[in-house]
Amino acid sequence: MKRAVVFPGQGTVGGEITGAARDAVLDYVGDGGVPYQLSVFASSVDLLYRLREAGIEADVVAGHSLGEYAAAHAAGSLGLADGVRLVAERDRLMNEAAHENRGGMVALIGADPEEVARATEEADGTVVAANFNTPRQTVVSGEMGALEEVTEGLRGRKVRLQVAGAFHSPLMAGAAREMERLLDAVRFEEPERPMVGATDGALLTTAGEVREALRNQMLSPVRWVAVVERLLDLGVREIFEAGEDGTLTRMLRDFKRKDVEGRTAKEVLA
């Protein structure tokens, strides 16, 4: 497997949407505004289609958090209309949970991931290590007071993320239960190409495994380090990011692998 296409999650921006992706979004929202998560999903799907038109076909796919919905579609497991509806509902449910259970997320740059995880386990209040993005970037998520307690005692640069709530933490439990119900009502097809799950780096090759990955993701940490390591173990040497601002491509630099090339869709399509 030489080529992977990967999809970013929350924190990136939604860009221009054209063609089938745009039609699917308009069919769902009508004259209403496009929810943020749906704009990211549809933009990623649009870039996926344009990469395919340019001759870039993925041997394997993966997505970071929200990006797993676009990855499931790219794998051939999740239909576009179902993906649009699920992501729009995910946006609504997570915003409601964030309003009811106030919290936030902080990225720690240069801190040891094991020290970060240990600090969250020892802290008072609700706080978890939510994203293991690179060997030198870990994100914590939870209640504001607990976030301050954890980050004060750790080395590295602290960056508060501009997100609506404490994603991938127990504060999202209510939203996660509702998403499980919605996912159980959707038909998933057997994947045409494998997908690497973001919660553990497992290779997903059946419809049931893809559904289960989406069921578990909202309360589980994103282990992007494990995803990248699995892609490398599979022999991937070209990684294309179907996203607007190159977040995952920049993170790839922290892995210091000169034998792997990361490019954004915009670079390829320019």
Main β-sheet, in a few words?
6 strands, mixed
Distance between the termini: 25 Å
Please tally the helical runs, counting DSSP H or I stretches of 4 or more residues: 11
Tell the overall outline. Answer: globular
Helix/strand order, N-terminal first: EHHEHHEHEEHEHEEHHEHEH
Poorly predicted parts: none
What is the C-level CATH assignment of the largest domain?
Alpha Beta
The CATH superfamily of the largest domain bears the name Malonyl-Coenzyme A Acyl Carrier Protein, domain 2
Number of domains: 2
Overall number of strands: 10
- The helical percent reads 40-55%
Describe the strand arrangement of the main beta sheet, using strand numbers. 8-7-2-1-9-10
CATH fold-level assignment of the largest domain: Malonyl-Coenzyme A Acyl Carrier Protein, domain 2
The rounded Rg comes to 18 Å
**Average pLDDT score:** 96
Strand content: 15-25%
Alpha-beta classification: alpha/beta
- Under the CATH scheme, which architecture of the largest domain would be assigned? 3-Layer(aba) Sandwich
Description:
By secondary structure, the protein is of the alpha/beta class. The mean pLDDT is 96. The strands form 2 sheets. Strands 8-7-2-1-9-10 form a 6-stranded mixed sheet. It has a 4-stranded antiparallel sheet with strand order 4-5-3-6. Helix 1 runs antiparallel to helix 2 and helix 2 runs parallel beside helix 3.
Summary keywords:
alpha/beta; Malonyl-Coenzyme A Acyl Carrier Protein, domain 2; Alpha-Beta Plaits; 2 domains; 6-stranded mixed β-sheet; 4-stranded antiparallel β-sheet
